Amino acid sequence: MSVGRQPSMADVALAAGVSAQTVSRALRGSPNVNPETRQRVLAAVDQLGYRFNNAAKMLSSGRSHTIGLIVLQSGGYYSRSAVTAGVEAGAGEAGYAVSIATIARLDTGLMERALAKLADQGVDGIVIAVPLISVTQKMEDITRDIPTVTVDGSRTAGARVLGIDQRAAGRVATQHLLDLGHRQVWHVAGPDEWIEARQRREGWRECLTAAGIEAPPVLEGDWSPASGYRQGQILAMIPEVTAVFAASDEMAFGIIRALRERGRSVPGHVSIVSVDDIELAAYCAPPLTTVRQDFYACGTAAVALLLQGAGEPAVEPPVLAVRESTAQPSVTDR
Amino acid sequence: MSVGRQPSMADVALAAGVSAQTVSRALRGSPNVNPETRQRVLAAVDQLGYRFNNAAKMLSSGRSHTIGLIVLQSGGYYSRSAVTAGVEAGAGEAGYAVSIATIARLDTGLMERALAKLADQGVDGIVIAVPLISVTQKMEDITRDIPTVTVDGSRTAGARVLGIDQRAAGRVATQHLLDLGHRQVWHVAGPDEWIEARQRREGWRECLTAAGIEAPPVLEGDWSPASGYRQGQILAMIPEVTAVFAASDEMAFGIIRALRERGRSVPGHVSIVSVDDIELAAYCAPPLTTVRQDFYACGTAAVALLLQGAGEPAVEPPVLAVRESTAQPSVTDR
DNA sequence: CGAGCCTATGTTACCGATGCCATCTGTAAC
DNA sequence: GTTACAGATGGCATCGGTAACATAGGCTCG
User: Fold this and answer.
1) Which CATH superfamily is domain A65-162 in?
2) What is the C-alpha to C-alpha distance for residues A258 and A150, in angstroms, rounded to an integer?
3) PANTHER family from the xrefs (chains A, B) (predicted)?
4) What is the dihedral of CA A239, A243, A249, A253, to 10 degrees?
5) Any strand D atom closer than 7 Å to A61 CB
6) Second label for A185, Cα 20 to 30 Å away, from A81, A320, B63, B117?
7) pLDDT at A254
8) Does domain B9-52 have CATH number 1.10.260.40?
């Protein structure tokens, strides 16, 4: 009605003929409220278009019903953005708002600032969805005060870590190539600062070692197709390369392009397997054999862990989607 | 020191030997504070690890320094996620936090709930980054109270709309195919509820009309490669198809796959152009001719518009990246 | 029938900052 | 030597809720 300002609880109380406190109780579903009174309150709320003031609620209750999420700005890293969606969904379901802090790149200073920003906002908890490697004192200070869950990152004081077993993904991918008959599997890894990259690499190495194969030197990209292309150019020069495990689908496509440009067909000469199973993986040429992991579930699990403090939830095992980028080595190569 | 609770302004004031009011002034950079006093205050802040309470600030000042962002949950739609990144960057630069509300799909009810949720949080402004088509009374109520910018959506009361000229993208793409000598251009559009989809389709139609060509029936996908694949299967059955304009890169790859499976090569038999220029566009086979638009800038512009209320900022024109998915029609087709 | 207790509601203090006004000091102006 | 005024600071009310305690009525039970 009046254009003055948003109606407050006092206004509602007046309209309903009760005290503000009763309004508060009625709205929060306190058991000790007469159903009829509650009806009156709700009617008044509806009529006035009352909307409770989160700041005030937060100030007096000390809780904001908001969780902070730290993500990387660049949208390119598939698994992380899936985690983000999961976090949003999980938080939304629990009635929590999500406040995001993006950092432009992996950098300790930016990370500190993002944490501080969220802390300033009074978030009730923080999900760190970037691979935190080094932990500073400042970070410790914040994560000691605010419950924090790190998705695949280093442990900080009081912060829990939710891990997806990226090693398993590396093993599954590598084993698939070995099973096809390849004698050696090369690897184009992600940046070393990324836990995912490291663990996938470790899984690859473990698998080779278990098969009695000495791992070849690791090539490193930055997740982008462009970096895959560059590493692919190198791989194309090495005649004995018949199988490659790429740490991400996007890099895999870059590698494939470079190989083909140099006359090495995929999967004819070289088989490629990667990780992520992005939507395009099945539709580009050739359709990519890739390992799928449920990062979305990982996001919801992170929120659950944060809010309920439940124990480490079960994580789905990685699943290999076999498509056309992998094949048995050609006879001459065997 | 004490584990009790976060230090408050009063604690800082005590430590610095001044009043809480002076602390407030010092921290906010009020001009009327003795530099020496300010030093003392800052020292105390530093020593106590003081962190201001956003809720309290918000309650008393009435402003939250937070802007709300409404996005679609599904990460697949390239242009929207680029907008998101832009919004985050722009807001961060202006010292604003970003609170996100995701909606699972385009649905009026979900949209209302998302708006209400952000309003409850007391955001200072809202950026709607989903294509809002129908506007309800409830939405009007909220956007009348809170400054809102819609990125490519319908206008609501008091909400400004920031548009990217998607028509231009459609025209540029279509014209490119005509310039190559194609006599007809087919179109696989995005879902009709999406403004982008509609505008791109209009641009395509305008361009054909200007060239005196009657537009063929429109095929419709849902942005996903899978939907592109399905429409591609249909296109493959129509012999006279030599040129296709796809509304997104992902659909384009699906179309290409379907065409090739049916023996129609790209660009040999059919040329394909699309919109987005995702990273993979240049690295998949064939590299995709596509129209790039600066959605990131669109996001930062939305924030600028929201905060400064500046006039409609200039939008970069779309740029065509010509790659290998388009070519002149083969002689027999001409 | 009064003690004890439970239910429904009202009262009051407070969360932590800011806005407004009051105060105090020094200094320039008349 | 007042007056005027600006700069620096403090006091107090206030934002809109919630926690803690107080109160009033109705019920059970010995």
Assistant:
1) Response regulator (3.40.50.2300)
2) 36
3) HTH-TYPE TRANSCRIPTIONAL REGULATOR GALS (PTHR30146:SF109), LACI-RELATED TRANSCRIPTIONAL REPRESSOR (PTHR30146)
4) 30
5) yes
6) A81
7) 96
8) yes
Query: Does residue A56 belong to the interface with chain B, where contact is any CB pair within 8 Å?
Result: yes
Strand D contacted by A9 CB (< 7 A): yes
pLDDT tens digits for range B145-170: 788 888 866 556 566 777 777 889 99
Domain limits of chain A? 9-52, 65-162, 166-292+316-333
In this structure, is the dihedral angle defined by the CA atoms of residues B315, B316, B321 and B322, taken in order, positive or negative? Answer: positive
For the domain covering B166-292+317-333, report its CATH number: 3.40.50.2300
Tens-place pLDDT, residues A15-25: 888 888 889 88
CATH topology for A166-292+316-333? Rossmann fold (3.40.50)
Q: What is the CATH number of domain B64-162?
A: 3.40.50.2300
Whether residue B283 and residue A74 make contact (CB cut-off 8 A), yes or no, is no
Which stretches of chain A drop beneath a pLDDT of 70? 1-5, 74-80, 132-133, 152-159, 309-315, 331-334
* CA pair distance B304, B29, nearest whole angstrom: 23
Footprint of strand C on the protein (CB under 7 A): A 17-22, 25, 31-34, 36-37, 56, 59-60; B 5-6, 8-10, 20-21, 24, 27-28, 50, 52-53, 56-57, 59-61
Query: Are the beta carbons of A228 and A266 closer than 8 angstroms?
Result: no
Bridge partners of residue B243, in order along the sequence:
B271
pLDDT in tens, B113-126: 888 888 878 888 89
Task: Answer yes or no: is pLDDT of B285 > 90.
Answer: no
**Structure token pair of residue B42:** 């800052």
